[in-house]
Amino acid sequence: MSDFKTRFVLNCELEFPRVNQYYWFNSATRKSEPCDKTRPGAEKSVGFRLPKEDAVELWNEAKAHFNDVKARKPDMGEFKTIHSYRENEDGTISFRAKRKGMTARGTPGADVPVVDGNNKLLDDLGFWGGSIGGVKFSMLPTYNQSKGEWGITFMLDKVQVVKPVYGGDGGDDFPTYSEAKGAVRSTDPSDVYDDAIPF
To answer: Which of 5, 32, 154, 173 allows an S-S link to 65, with CB 3.0 to 4.6 Å?
Structure first.
């Protein structure tokens, strides 16, 4: 059994796409900035927004995969989270999938194919958040050293853009998830699906 498990999410709203080139997160400016593929931290990424019930299903699937891997690797800690998710004020949940420019061995990684609704390579990769499409990613158990948490990272494999949106002011970027989560977390007890699911 592989540590990776492939998952498709279809017909969702895409958010903050960073697939037209590689970007790195500048901690000084708190912005994603274009960079060369070989720069440390360089990655391509895309967010996607799901209704809460679909997010709960994805969370449970991610946790089950984590526990399957842990059964073979008992030194792993307990599942705590899906890395890079946030709760939105409208009750939806946003996730992010990413792929690094360089592999752990220091060699260039494979690029992220971006296709249209007919699975043909998309000509204009400068589409904006609000586009409709799908995301193919691999779920991988990882450890977040800064937070001391085990969880699942979504490793981006492919993006499909069915209804692209172009234009806009370009001023938005991913918020830090710790800030966003604290800002919009619901305190309504009726919103609780499961004690193990934080949204």
So the answer is: 5
